[in-house]
Amino acid sequence: MPKVRTSFGHMMDWDRTKIENQILQETRLVQTFYGREGAERELAERIALEVENRIKKLGLTFLSGPLIREIMNMTLLEEGLVDYRNVCTRVGTPVFDAHLIDVGRGFESKDNSNLQENAETSHKKKADKISKEQYLLQLPPELADLHLTGEGES
């Protein structure tokens, strides 16, 4: 297995147990957000092994924490574990969308005429976008959908 570039900018040897531990730790949020139980060790081990097998099958020569997480989240979705995927996913924005924010054409570019086109505004808009994404993921999916469609308002 190739070395892994971590989200903290380090290179580490591949270690499947890191995926297992992340699943166990992060899925505890399912209890907080949705009132359901987090993953058991057996499930975490099975998902981590499947992720490792997929990486081997893909023949990847480069690995990063975010890439591994994408594969893990797809595996969780394929297993029907949407709640687990929701708490394990990264919140953020694609590079293209971040670029559009930087050049004044992206997220909420027309929402506040009081903001100036500068690095601070780009940073604020990126933070706002990430926060919105996080908050929606913390809601049960049915409630998030109602919020987005405005159907839950009285």
Structure description:
- GO terms for molecular function: ribonucleoside-diphosphate reductase activity, thioredoxin disulfide as acceptor; ribonucleoside-triphosphate reductase (thioredoxin) activity.
- One of its GO terms (cellular component) is anaerobic ribonucleoside-triphosphate reductase complex.
- It comes from Methanocalculus chunghsingensis.
- This is Ribonucleoside-triphosphate reductase.
- It is a single chain.
- By secondary structure, this protein is mainly alpha-helical.
- The chain has 2 domains: 4-88, no CATH class; 95-149, no CATH class.
- It is built from 8 helices and 3 strands, in the order E-E-H-H-H-E-H-H-H-H-H.
- Strands 2-1-3 form a 3-stranded mixed sheet.
- Strand 1 and strand 2 form a beta hairpin.
- Helix 1 (16-26) crosses helix 3 and helix 4 (65-78) packs antiparallel against helix 5.
- It is flat and about 50 Å long.
- 14% of the residues are buried.
- The model has no long low-confidence stretch (mean pLDDT 87).
Descriptive labels:
mainly alpha, 4% strand, 154 residues, three-stranded mixed beta sheet, 3 strands, 8 helices, 2 domains, ribonucleoside-diphosphate reductase activity, thioredoxin disulfide as acceptor
List the helices and strands and how they pair.
Blueprint: E1 4-5, E2 11-12, H1 16-26, H2 29-34, H3 41-58, E3 63-64, H4 65-78, H5 82-88, H6 95-102, H7 119-138, H8 141-149
Parallel strand pairs: 1-3
Antiparallel strand pairs: 1-2
Helix pairs in contact: 1-3, 3-4, 4-5
